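Two proteins follow. First one:
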Amino acid sequence: MNKLNIKIIFQMMGFLLIFNGLFMFVSSAISWIYKDGASQGIFFAGTLTIIIGLLFRFVTKGFKKEIKKREGYIVVTLGWIFMSLSGSLPYLFTESIPSFTNAFFETISGYTTTGASILEDIESMPKGILFWRSTTHWIGGMGIIVLTIAVLPLLGIGGMQLFAAEAPGPSADKLHPRITDTAKRLWYIYFGFTITEAVLLKLAGMSVFDAVNHAMSTLSTGGFSTKNASVAYWNDQPAIQYIIIIFMFLAGTNFVLSYYAFKGKISKVLHDEEFKTYFFNILGISLIVGLVIYFKANVSQIPSEIQLIAHPMVLGEFESSLRHGLFQVASVITTTGFVTADFTIWTPFLTLIFFFLMFFGASAGSTAGGVKFVRHIIMIKNGFLEFKRSIHPSAIIPVRYNNRTVQQDIVFNIIAFFILYLLVFAVGALVFGLLGLDYVTSLGGSASSLGNVGPAFGKLSPVNNFNSLPILGKWWSSFLMLLGRLELFTVMILLTPYFWKSNKF
């Protein structure tokens, strides 16, 4: 077995650290503009990060420019870990979050676009730090797009090969210059959507700072807000929430389809199975949730000591019910995690619905976390075809997706992924229980962390945060976030002995 190309791994880490440090300089500039006192600390954090990055690149110069599968797995996993470690420095250097555990948790929650926070009073934070929080989301979102379109199909991860053929990118056998072109085009769309949403939110009544931060959090499906009440702060401004709903939906759509839409190939979008399933699920579930809120939840009659979020019904109770239903369904399915209401007090039926939604995920090739609709589609189709195969055992009955036959190994890969996902969820909940959390909080915390959702249930409900977790609980949640964000296999394969066996360093 060929030895690992260590030099290219650390070259890549060096590049990522330099990239990270430059973004810290932007946050430092924002801090200086607002004169919040954090500019110097963020600048020093950025400087140190860039120095370490340059050191990595200097020490490993003269490397062989060849990256194979094994190096690919390590680069992807270490990339997120190194970014999270360096991304903690602005919090530590400014003493905004003095605890390393809390700083790391907040940072990895940002990069994995989970949006789970330990901050008790977000609005007291320096503007530069709040911008850095949103930046970690935005960087993570960009990284995920490139990862899922260009890298994971090459590594054969979790059935991502399914849309490799659709992507205007690489073939599955070698790295290709078209990866760069693909990434560039998708980043343009990502950046364009972010700017557009920021402008619309400003026009709808947000400040420039809030608009930019919420746009960055929306497009990355992250969910960090600049307000303690999250988007519920604007519950009296429906226009703001409708804008965020639209862009949450776009962020949860395969960015390759957005590319096709801009190219005028609308039929490709409308005929895509995953997109249709994603769209109609959000629409149908939102309608059910909205109607149950209106007829059963009696939001206006819930005492204020239980319902901590105000619900001014500006356009009437019916519109308010449908809007909050649509917003929270879109927020959980796309794993954004913005909050306009505490969905855990909307009847047990709706609480269960939102729990199940945490296992949906949005589209493959989007910035959303979770299982993804494409996998659910393939598994359901394969499940129903088993009835036919039972009756006709000799017949070859393949699963078809977008009018193409899905290879059997991809079907097996997806089934394996889902089984492993449920197993990790169960173990995740058990560990939380072992650490002293009640079963509702344990189940919700595991599902939310693994699915990169953000708000959960129990002590981690939409009106609470993750600061109540014990120290070990925060590290365990961070690990689950990383696992879920990088499609399980990418991280877990590094924990297997046969990955390292017979490797000469």
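Second one, unrelated to the first:
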Amino acid sequence: MQTVFTDKKESKNLPYQVFTTEQVKSLEAIYAQGHNGHCYDLMERAGKRVFSEILRLNKKPSMVWIFCGRGNNGGDGYIVASLLKEQGITHRVFAMGIPHTNTEANLAFEYYLSLGGNIEFDLPENFTVPPEITVDAILGTGIKSAPKEDAAEWILFVNDLGGFKISIDIPSGVIANTGMVPGNCINADLTVCMLGLKPGLFTSDAVDYTGKVVFDSLNVSTDHFYNQISHQEIPLRRLGYEDIIANLPKRVTSSNKGDSGKVLLIAGSLGMGGAALISGIGALRAGAGLVKIATDLHNVSAINSCRPELMTINIFDEEALVQAINWADVIAVGPGLGQGLEVSQILENLNGVRKPVIVDADALNLISKGLDLYLERMVITPHPGEAARLLGTSASEINADRINAACRLYERYGSTVLLKGAGTIVYDGKPITIISEGSPAMATGGMGDLLTGMIASLCAQGLSLSQATCVAAVIHGRAGSMASKEAGVIGTLPLDLAPYIRLLVNG
């Protein structure tokens, strides 16, 4: 039975399984073995799904334009065109060339011609009736670099058209495995992904081009194939809020504050007390029973007056700090901490600690400068700039392949990795998790500090390091989306998310 999945931003019914382009090709090959050596029926189903999306937008669109490349993505476009022709819907088809003979795309091409369809091989110079809906079937998932000159020209032309734009499988110009957009790219309003979700739909630059993402399985069950992959290589998965509800912490009637975990935050140098406060509130709103902040004394009165539920100690009182480290169930270190010699000396107190430690911000920068932290259970939470310093590369290289960057960080530091950015990546050895939540509203200082406190809080409440990291990232992203829907993406502050975090952590 065909399943229709909806809004990426809501993440409600998108599958959790994610496949690389190579894995999808293997899946198609397996399918072809049992279907006379071809996948033409999959192409037909893909075209029908896109056609149904056109009718969902408008049962009688005034004009539909379809732009077809030479490959199988173009074949999907010809199927759409054939359905439009059969239904008498006004349309135009533009092709970059004739598909290769003896291919499924060529079969679709010939079928459209057999219906009396007309194909134009040049872009129109003058036209009186612009398209209400445009279908992008130019480039598929096989590209590894920027579109070549002819494809790039077609993409620019499509982007300049008005109306609603639908991309088949992935917007032309997106590298499907990484989400990198190295050149011109279709700016889609809707992407209809087929057979298997591609990682590039949810991370890096691609999130600015996909629009809403819907999914169609094409009546193919991928469960067995995914399980095989999981035994052979590192699997990819996507997580949204609906996927993590079962992992949220629970409380029984007899619960007390001690049962919900004790969090120590080592954060906030002189003038940076806000980072410590934001992180502390994140820990409280995510459900920690007790939260203590080791911070510069100049921050204490402000923290206590703003959020009296937070306990504070002098970060430079070594005896008090050691006692707090022994007291805590989970420790988070780094927000607003600074990178001076005295901070390095403070962090040396953590060496050998067997408790979970969440390492963020300035603590990460100190590690990149050579600070040795010997921790058995650690989560590192770099943004691309911090990740670049940790790996000795550039932020642009990190963003070019965020999944690979997370894997490299894990290999080097042996810890659970949360790589922030568009499409947060979490990796702890297996699986690679892409967080499909978030909003541009979250591009403001302090959001990472909030997340650090949340991870520590959820871990203190009994979730494993990996679970706490994934759940916190999902809630953090969804809360950002909820806050932006209420008041807009510009001007959202980290603590604007706090009420939504409370709601979401309660399920």
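SUMMARY FIELD: The CA atoms of residues 367 and 461 lie 27 Å apart. Confidence is low (pLDDT under 50) at residues 1-11.
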